[in-house]
Write a structure and sequence with these properties.
Distance between the termini: 61 Å
Radius of gyration: 22 Å
Number of helices: 17
Shape: globular
Strand content: under 5%
Length: about 450
Amino acid sequence: MRRIDYVEPLVMLATVVQWLVLATITGVVVGMGTSLFLHVLFFLTDESISVPFWLQLLLLPLGGLINGLMLYYGYRANAGGLKDSMLAAVYEQGGKMPFKTVLIKPVAAIVTLACGGSAGKEGPCSHIGATLASAIGHSLKLNAELRKRLVACGVSAGFAGVFGTPIGGAIYGVEVLAIGRIRHDFLLPAIVAGVTAFQVSKILGIPYEYFHIPVLPEFSELLFIKTVLIGMICGMAARVFVDLTHGATRLFLHVRTRFGVWPPLMPVLGGCVLAALIFVIPTKYLGLSLPLMNQALAGESMPYMGFLWKSLLVAITLGSGFYGGIVTPQFVIGAVTGNAFAHLFGISPELGAAVGLVAVVASASNTPLAAILMGVELFGGTVGTAYVAGAAIAAYLIIGHRSVYPDQRLAYAKSSWMSIRPDLPVGQEKAHLSYGLLKWWKRRR
């Protein structure tokens, strides 16, 4: 036998032990960091949730001003020139993140949500996770490849800790790196870090909410097809959400460039637009909108246009320069959309909301496997994995080659009829019709 046949089991054992240690340390540190952030966030958002309407009108532009000044001046401390992005850390910076700016995004997100900006809570947690993991890698003098895996660990731990989905959140942190490809060598570190962060967060008193969906009958092909149709509708809703978010970003950038607006004032403009919109859009679409999601999952009737109102407010909030997460809004948009359209197919609104929630996360973030696992963890498996999976994959295909993360890499095209240049950011590369399809089309003409 070759020498490697004797050595390989020892190397693999050492690899498992290595990541059990490193990922556990990362999970503990990230769990503590995200728990502190979430406790502060919940306290301030609970205090601001019932503010009078006139005060809400003032808080939105004020929150924009604080965000603008904090992000503008805070990032001047980033003398090293490293990008403050998890995807950039993995693909461009050898697992390095700027540590001096670790608090800027979490504090800005707290201001955004406490003042009524429509965004999510997971972005700061993934940012905290990635930055702390990068710092751990730097202090242990790990090489670039190990640091990259550790950063992915930190992101997974952040997602797992914020949503209470240790497996789905861990897979999300790995799957989000590239469309159509998963780094399997990242999985063990991510899952260990995710489970550890989740347990630490529970010990530190972070509340998690899981949902009860009425028990379903035995598997039905007809019901499966109906949930796939709901998934397709949610995929289209996710496409609107992604296009609105990127469109608003381009619009505010054009206004800033065209009129020479000082950058910190752009979120103030966004806050003024939000204040004007809540004269016609209910204020329940501001902030995290978790009560709205809970109502949809409880079966309360949702409006057809609910997904558009939430998408519009999120697009203006983030596009104008407020900072916040972008996954929690996907939960809300999915639950509202699935609930609203469920009755068209004879599906209970609770089931429609559950599969819709999973479908929008699967499509807007291009993370179908993570979304399916999140669905199983959030709903206790009672929804039926097959129904969740069918809706998630259908939505993932319907949205096409779009993403809420413009830096997300395109590894493979979603259809054999399309072609892409692999490993380019989705914001730079557009899918094209494949040569074979074009050749067939020319023959037909």
